[in-house]
Specification:
DNA polymerase, domain 1, Rossmann fold, binds S-adenosylmethionine, 12 helices, 2 domains, single chain, 7-stranded mixed sheet
């Protein structure tokens, strides 16, 4: 554990990926290096660990941790979206045996009020996981036309009161722009009927929607799924690609908008003869892990094994 961060479903990920000595592992969302360090211990000195993250700070933390805990293991870092790793010339000729994406944000990101990801703490309305990303949450909230904003909140937040929320936002922003998370959270909570009586905070869904939109999360996931399919197809046809024959791919998602496309893509790949699903139903955390780690409660793990290999 590091800075209060516990990797979710760690044992289950290790079982599903089954990393062995000499394997090449791509951690597409290195975060604080929890999963990566455990996998590095298995691939050993003949293996390769590639760490990828959008957030340069986390990438450095993960890299320092894995290198310190597993001296002699080759560790390479890459900052950027996981959607681009399969095309990065720096990794041309490398085919991975194990790939993990643990989607979303890390505990240190949500706990840092300066990033504006949390509706529990006041901070600037930013929400970018990549500090150089093109658009902030404040820009979206202050500039998106009302109907579009309502659609975004409905689609990405699954918020039934999306129209009321968008209308309240637009009314308020005519007087004063939104700059802070608490300011927005207060306006949203007042617009969601019965927000005070619900189990979840009335601002939860709208904040989720904005985070997904700001970071293009669903588009990135779609392009990753496409790359997994392309990699599996290449392996199936005996062509070189970013996935080795027999590669295992594990994806951890945190809401149905992510889990649904993953489920569909893995099903379609199996039907196309590109390999087999390692999970029929998503693997979820047990009672003990859910009690110890809030984040684990909504985690869903799915895996796929590319055709071929030993
Ligand atoms: C849940 S954390 C990963 C935690 C990690 N598995 C561990 O054990 O410490 C998710 C990480 O993914 C990164 N991230 C989110 N979207 C990304 C993307 N599209 N490309 C690359 N990294 C991304 C975030 O910056 C964050 O550090």
């Amino acid at each position: 554990m590091m800075g209060g961060h516990m990797p979710v479903l760690l044992d289950e990920v290790l079982e599903l990926l089954g990393p062995g000595a000499g394997d090449r592992y791509a951690d597409l969302t290195a975060g604080l290096g929890g999963h990566a360090s455990a996998v590095a211990g298995r691939v050993g000195r003949d293996g390769l660990v590639v760490l990828n993250d959008l957030d340069g700070g986390n990438l450095e933390r993960a890299s320092a941790r894995v290198s310190a805990e597993h001296t002699g293991v080759e560790v390479r870092s890459r900052r950027g979206s996981f959607a681009e790793l399969p095309f990065d010339p720096a990794f041309e000729g490398v085919s991975f045996d194990c790939v993990l994406a643990d989607l979303g944000f890390a505990s240190n990101q949500v706990d840092d009020p300066g990033r504006g990801l949390s509706f529990r703490e006041d901070g600037p309305l930013d929400m970018r996981l990549d500090p150089e990303g093109p658009v902030t949450a404040a820009e979206l909230v202050n500039e998106t036309p009302e109907a579009e904003l309502a659609d975004l909140i409905y689609r990405y937040g699954e918020e039934r009161a999306s129209r009321r929320v968008a209308s309240a936002i637009v009314r308020r922003r005519r007087e004063r722009r939104f700059e802070r998370t608490q300011d927005l959270a207060d306006v949203v909570r007042k617009a969601v009927p019965g927000a005070g009586r619900q189990r979840i905070d009335g601002a939860t869904r709208t904040f989720q929607a904005l985070r997904i939109a700001v970071n293009g999360e669903l588009e990135m996931l779609e392009s990753l799924l496409l790359s997994v399919e392309t990699g599996a197809r290449a392996a199936a046809e005996g062509r070189p690609g970013w996935l080795a024959p027999g590669a295992r791919v594990a994806l951890i998602s945190f809401h149905s908008l992510e889990d649904r496309p993953i489920k569909r893509a893995f099903q379609a790949m199996e039907q196309a003869g590109l390999g087999e699903r390692l999970t029929r139903k998503p693997v979820v955390a047990g009672v003990a892990e859910s009690e110890a780690n809030r984040r684990a409660r909504s985690a869903k793990l799915r895996g796929f094994r590319v055709i071929g290999g030993g």
